[in-house]
Design brief:
The chain is mainly beta. It has three domains: 92 residues, Immunoglobulins (Immunoglobulin-like), CATH 2.60.40; 76 residues, Immunoglobulin-like (Sandwich); 92 residues, Immunoglobulin-like (Sandwich), CATH 2.60.40. 0% of the residues lie in helices and 48% in strands. Strands 2, 3, 5, 6 and 7 form a five-stranded antiparallel beta sheet that branches. A four-stranded antiparallel beta sheet has the order 13-12-15-16, with no helix packed on it. It starts with 32 loop residues before the first strand and ends with a strand.
Length: 309
């Protein structure tokens, strides 16, 4: 049983005031609930594990340590809804949340009076790994800084990151931000991110970037059901600016920020100019992105337009 304040509250500030003498101020003590499960390393490797319960505010409200057989059990948990973190107290494995997620996305459990929540089993990895891959956020243009994200990892608190920019297997730059030179024109870059946290290390790479080139500036003029393009990419001469434009309509933006597109059409750019039909767009308001992929020394870029039909 747990101590309790009048009204079933957990502390002085939340409990309602009663006037003395008080009639009918009966209090029922709440029975404890419990949790049980196991924590091991990969292939059943034993470790010194702990299961910790955190409330919605991220506060530690209790938990249990593993025994010699890698299991844990606690029968003294205050009833409520919690998230569970599994950890190796010796730091040889990465901590994780119930259902292998971050705290924000972890699956909650509900502890009820007099009942056990069982099956809380975890296998901890001995390396750091990504839950979201690193990403280069923009196009690589000659003489223009471009940045990479670290991605999201299975252990973020206290983790440090280093960045290597690769052309094939050759390291051409270090740090989260890099400025491509003329020598990299036509090359696709990859960023290798190394994460370190105590004894734990992990690496992950980005997808390949678009080809390095000079930054193209796009002008798109919508008239009726067609779009005309004028593209410049100094110091490349206008007559040598060529490539392709793909038009895509934004259909949906997901909760994680990812965008779902619908392809509308494609056209070639010659001597810095081109034209594309949007006749398939229905009446209404549309958000359309024009993706330009340059050739030769010309890089890639995109431009978004709101179109009303």
């Amino acid at each position: 049983m747990f101590d309790s304040w009048y009204g079933g509250k957990t502390d002085y500030d939340r409990s309602p005031v009663v006037t003395v003498p008080a009639a009918g101020a009966d209090i029922s003590l709440l029975r404890a609930g419990g949790i049980e499960g196991s924590i091991t390393g990969v292939a059943g490797l034993g470790l010194s594990g702990s299961a910790t319960l955190l409330d919605a505010d991220g506060d530690n409200v209790g938990g249990s340590a593993t025994k010699a057989d890698n299991t844990f059990k606690s029968r003294s948990i205050y009833p409520g809804t919690y998230k569970v973190q599994f950890a190796d107290t010796q730091g040889n494995h990465a901590a994780e949340w119930w259902k292998n997620a971050t705290f924000a996305d972890a699956t909650t459990i509900t502890v009820k009076p007099g009942q056990m929540v069982s099956g809380l089993n975890a296998v901890l990895a001995a390396t750091l790994s990504t839950t979201e891959r690193p990403e280069v956020k923009n196009y690589p243009w000659v003489g223009k800084p471009v940045s990479a994200t670290s991605g999201s990892w299975n252990l973020s608190s206290g983790t440090t990151y280093t960045y290597e920019w690769l052309n094939g297997s050759t390291v051409v730059g270090n740090g989260a931000t890099f400025t491509p030179s003329k020598s990299l024109i036509g090359k696709r870059l990859v960023v290798r991110v190394t994460a370190e946290n105590g004894k734990l290390v992990g690496t992950s790479t980005t997808a390949k970037t678009a080809k390095v080139g000079y930054k193209p500036k796009i002008k798109a003029k919508v008239k009726g059901s067609s779009v005309t393009f004028k593209i410049k990419a100094k110091p490349v001469k206008g007559k040598k600016v060529k490539g392709t434009v793909v038009a895509k309509e934004i259909v949906k933006v997901k909760k994680n920020g990812k965008i779902k597109y619908k392809k509308l059409g494609k056209t070639k750019i010659k001597k810095g100019q081109g034209k594309l039909s949007l006749g398939q767009l229905k009446k209404g308001k549309h958000k359309v992105v024009f993706f330009f992929k340059g050739k030769g020394k010309v890089g890639s870029n995109d431009i978004k337009r709101k179109i009303k039909r």
